[in-house]
Amino acid sequence: MRSIIASVLKIVARLLRLIPRHILRKMGGVLGFLWFDVFKFRKNIVLSNLDIAYPEWSTEKKIAVGRQSVYYLGYNFADFFTMPALDDKWLEKNVVFEGVAHLVKAREQKKGVYLLTLHLGHGDMAANAITMRFGEMYLITKVFKNKLFNDFWFSIRGAKGVKYIDAHSPTNAFEIFKALKKNSMVAFVVDQFMGKPFGIATQFFGKRTGSAYGLALFAQKTKSPIVPVYTYEGSDKKMHVVFEPVIDINPFIVEDKTQSLQNITQHFCDKVEEIIRRHPEQWMWVHRRWKDIE
């Protein structure tokens, strides 16, 4: 069934590619307009999140940035269905890779690479671009219970070879270790709320919340390098995929294992916050990030 779905989606993607990208994005912008300005779905959440993160901003600026972030979700949705038709020519025209030397250096250790990432820009498009250019990549993610919908969705998300590890699978640790052994990349998306037992108390934009500690746990066990990576749309209308220097977690490790997890996870949160502050209009503010972990 999944192969049939993939074949149909590839045809649809090629047809969509016949539509100029700027027109597709305008269609996505209409979705953003309906979402934020007409139906106002989660608009209050967007603005309350911005109140927490940027209390110094005016109401007008928060509304403008919140609106833009939702419009970007619309743009990304329009681009999403073209992914099965991505090719090297499209990458050359539309993608700019930055800081590639950091990834190359990390992979030279032959221990696999953890990618620390977040919901900024078009993450799924970037994941496929990274796979096409740099090789095998696994993304830790949730899956859907409905098999038909799950096959449909992941046939698009993984159209160019991205592999996925179920975040709640009892075998996910084995799959992560296996991927690292092959010197593959394993991406952890660390910007969302996570409660107990898989989350730990952290500060994010100055407010207490819960964050997943999985990457901190695995990083200590395997000693594999951690490379922050994110994507954003530049003024050139291209997708920029940015790799940053490897994170050294050693300064955050102490005798108390729980405290080490908290220290490292907090450092990851600080890095994510730093990245969001560079491009706040492209982060996913619709998520309820600041729920109470207790």
Explain how this protein is built:
It is a single chain. The protein has 294 residues and is of the alpha/beta class. 50% of the residues lie in helices and 16% in strands. It has 11 helices and 9 strands. The chain has helices spanning 2-17, 21-38, 43-53, 59-80, 88-94, 100-107, 123-134, 147-157, 172-181, 214-222, 257-278; strands at 95-98, 113-117, 137-141, 163-166, 185-189, 199-204, 207-212, 226-233, 239-243. It has a 7-stranded mixed β-sheet with strand order 1-9-8-2-5-3-4, sandwiched between helices. It has a two-stranded antiparallel sheet with strand order 6-7. The longest helix has 22 residues, at 59-80. The radius of gyration is 19 Å and the shape is globular. It starts with a helix and ends in a 16-residue tail after the last helix.
Distance between the termini: 42 Å
Largest sheet: 7 strands, mixed
User: How would the global form be characterised?
Assistant: globular
Based on CA atoms alone, the radius of gyration comes out at 19 Å
What is the residue-mean pLDDT, rounded to a whole number?
Answer: 95
Q: Low-confidence spans: pLDDT under 50, at least 5 residues?
A: none
Strand pairing plus helix content: what structural class? alpha/beta
Helix content: 40-55%
Oligomer: single chain
The ordered H/E elements are HHHHHEHEHEHEHEEEHEEH
Number of strands: 9
Percentage beta strand: 15-25%
- DSSP summary: helix tally: 11
